Amino acid sequence: MNYQVPPTSTLHQMPPSQVAFHRTELSVILSLYGRFVAAGEWRDYGISCLKDVAVFSVFRRTAETPLYRIEKRPRLRDKQGMYAVVGMDGQIIRRGHDLKKVLRVLERKLIRAVE
Q1: How far apart are CA 112 and CA 115, in angstroms?
Q2: What is the pLDDT of residues 76-86, one digit of tens each?
Q3: Are the CB atoms for 19 and 71 separated by under 8 Å?
Q4: Which of the chain's ends, N or C, has fewer CB atoms near its CB within 10 Å?
Q5: Are 33 and 27 in contact (CB under 8 A)?
Q6: Is residue 115's pLDDT more than 60?
Q7: Distance between terminal CA atoms of the chain?
């Protein structure tokens, strides 16, 4: 009978941490999402929690590419701000430190859509 001890490097490693949205951040995002759904502009969303970034993707239809991505990157907290709204083409529309201020760029589009 052979008994093998696993390498010590795997014994003490912690699983990689994930970046996720906090409950208060999600409530702000879902409030905006609900208003766009009521206006008939958005129909689906997806949330991805990865190692370096958390992404809230908004879709017009389920099978499409996302219209907008709301990203949270904690590593950029001290630099440009950890929140960003990214367009369909990958261009950063707005970036900042305060989520509500960053999402104002989308609220302006809601006002135009309702009129």
Answers
A1: 6
A2: 888 888 899 99
A3: no
A4: N
A5: no
A6: no
A7: 77
